[in-house]
Prior knowledge:
By secondary structure, the protein is α/β, with parallel strands linked by helices. The protein has helices at 50-66, 87-97, 114-124, 139-142, 144-159, 176-187, 210-220, 277-285, 293-296, 299-308, 313-338, 342-358; strands at 13-19, 24-32, 38-44, 73-78, 104-108, 168-172, 191-197, 200-203, 230-232, 244-247, 266-268, 289-291.
Amino acid sequence: MCEITCDELGPAKVIQLYSPKEQLRAVVVVDNTALGPAIGGVRMSSRLTAEEVWRLARTMTLKNSIAGLPHGGAKAGIIADPASPGKERRFRVFARMIRNLTEYIPGPDMGCDETAMAWIHDEIGRSVGLPEEIGGLPLDKLGATGYGVAECAEVAASAAGLELKGARVAVQGFGSVGKAAARFLADKGAVLVAVADSQGTVHNPDGLDLPELVKVKKESGSIVKYSKGNILPTDAVIGIDCHILIPAATPDVIHEGNAETIKARLILQGANIPATTGAEQILHERGILVIPDFIANAGGVIMAAMEYAGKAEQEAFTAIRERIRNNTRLILEKMSTDQTLPRVAADALAQERVLRAMCYQDS
């Protein structure tokens, strides 16, 4: 059963799309547009639910708000295996079905990339995260989200009692975000000791060779073919002995059932909604600092908004660095002052701006 609830922020629209002829099932949630047209990714997965899309849409409202962007939040989900035939057709049909939903600007998310955004743009002239050949800033290729995670880490590390140089990092999910976060953190002196994908975890306490991992993943489809580490089950990455844990894949991978096993002192949420509310409470009580998704992983949507505004690549990276570092400091200060969870502090800051903007709308 789908559990979508409404509150003072939204959602404004929940739309189910279905085309039996095209074998397309999709959900679009426009959560709030008080700050401007809503930007949010299109996620493609056979396991998607309307509730997940709704939760992700709210995350985008908060993310765009606290990043100071002139955009509201939304999310879309195409319920299909991204590896199944007919992907381009599904995206093009999806685009035609949202043509008149002009308050929603699609962007890339799990299961799609800048090519999919090009298909959507070709159909309706409205998307972000486009290939550079047609004037876009390709978020995945540039590593925008991972770059933001690394900038967040540099600010948050000291609050967690860590030195970033030499810090051991474990990454759950070795897609575009996980790979980029690992690369930018390595540039800052951190050491990657564990990586997981859907087929398993690779662990080497002495450090993993990131370029070799990327090569193995590209050639074989999984990091488990990497030969210089111990192969463990996928879920084992959560309990790896490390300083920094980055969940960068699917929702709710950190939950009440495994929160007590976490050894990291700092968790940077590279994915959206990667931890349950109960798990975050447990981690807070254990003294583990958890930086919420819409703070840590806002790099992608900041770059998308810069693209939409016609800004250049360097301007986008500067905006990511400044805004994520500033917001990380803000929530750390507020959680300390209010003696509350990082997410509660971040929610309050993000919602304040949305609610102020809503005051100017015609009721």
